[in-house]
Amino acid sequence: MNKVILMGRLTRDPEVRYTQTSNTLVASFTLAVNRRFVRQGEERQADFINIVAWNKTGEFVSKYFKKGQQVAVVGRLQTRTWDDDKGQKHYITEVIAEETYFADSKRDGNTSGDFDSNFGSDVTTTGNDSEFEVSSGDDLPF
Length: 142
Known about the structure:
Elements: E1 4-10, E2 15-18, E3 25-34, E4 46-54, H1 55-64, E5 70-83, E6 89-102
Parallel strand pairs: 4-6
Antiparallel strand pairs: 1-3, 1-5, 2-3, 3-4, 5-6
């Protein structure tokens, strides 16, 4: 099984390109993901993970993700190799995003526009705010 789940902050705005052959949108960005543990007397360290989002996910990312924003990404790990003009071999490991989500809390100044922080790229809106109407918090069953 190849599944990656990450949460971190964008180091820069997503970079958007289109493939030459099929004109498919590709958005690339880097996530700074804090390491879980901190050694005593040291600052928290982060890993910088390259993320690639294709098609609709890439469209969503390019439209709503901005530098510094905290996001969550679910995807798969992929490695590639290629030879440059000088014949030198290059290796890269990246995450191919399959799902993307806002992870900033509303208190942190969510910069995601009109979207709720729980929505991600796999959510589509129909124009209706909700199927359900709730008149007050007292009527909720939980």
